[in-house]
Amino acid sequence: MYDKIDKEKYVWEVAHTEREGHAVEIAAQAVEKKTDVVVAIGGDGTVNEIARSLVHTNTALGIIPCGSGNGLARHLRIPMDPKRALEVVNSGFQYMIDYGKINGTDFFCTCGVGFDAFVSLKFAHAGKRGVLTYLEKTLQESLKYQPETYELETEDGVSEYKAFLIACGNASQYGNNAYITPQATLTDGLLDVTILEPFTVLDIPSLAFQLFNKTIDQNSRIKTFRCKSLCIRRTAPGVVHFDGDPMEMEADLNIEVIQKGLRVIVPYIEEKNQVNMLQRAQECVNGIKLMHEAIVDNITDRNKKILKRFTRKGRK
Questions:
Q1: Ranges of residues in the chain whose predicted pLDDT is under 50
Q2: Model pTM greater than 0.90?
Q3: Taking a C-beta distance cutoff of 8 angstroms, is the pair 26, 18 a contact?
Q4: How far apart are CA 174 and CA 251, in angstroms?
Q5: Helix (H) or strand (E) holding 106
Q6: 281 — phi, psi (to 5°)?
Q7: d(CA 303, CA 315)
Q8: For the residues of 8-63, what is the DSSP string, one character each?
């Protein structure tokens, strides 16, 4: 893959992460050296660690997606093929995006509480990664999980919901084209909030179909709104998720958007351009196929992090 790097534009070095949080340190060192671009080779967790050190700097983030979900890369239309993703890095086209904070912790794609956070914790302890493992855990737990009651406060007032999950999107999806906040954009300075109210087993097919068809906000079990900041109050501390990773946090959660805080290298396509109908249909088919594979796998079997740093030639 490295032979595809534009040698007329970049000199580079490769650093492998050795532990959780190591990418944060390496990216911070790159910023101190005034590196032009830091490229994450991995999933949303790797992207999150690196991006945390790049916010409000002149160093841009590049992404070569190699994770299980790749939510931010997919939202930005970065190709899933590593060589094509590297061609995007070679192009050098930069885009300023928003990012979020949940109790002071940065996130770039989504965060939330409830069932998706619970599954994220189960997934982290599953011993193997991948979309089939994630969907298997989702199927196993979905009918056992008990909804909670939350108090939500925004700049527009206070409301209370009994919810299966509450998702806050800076970007539109969890990953794997599962669009939990389908109308979210990365440049509007707003959180897109999706609340999934209690449902029955009969609702699952339509919810699953609409999640992958980018229309879940049209389901009668769903409530959505936008806000600049959100406080979620729950009865006790517990798990939350941000960019797919679980973390224990306090009972009260303060979530906000920071506008235009991160430079990202993206394909030269304006975010407002929508994918065509054929692409959307294919995404839907892919999502249904993944769910089918997960169910089959569950019945029959029960089943890099690498960081790459680029510096422009001639930069001191």
A1: 133, 271-279, 294-308, 316
A2: no
A3: no
A4: 23
A5: strand 105-107
A6: -65, -40
A7: 50
A8: TTEEEEEEE--STTHHHHHHHHHHHTT-SEEEEEE-HHHHHHHHHHHTTSSPEEEE
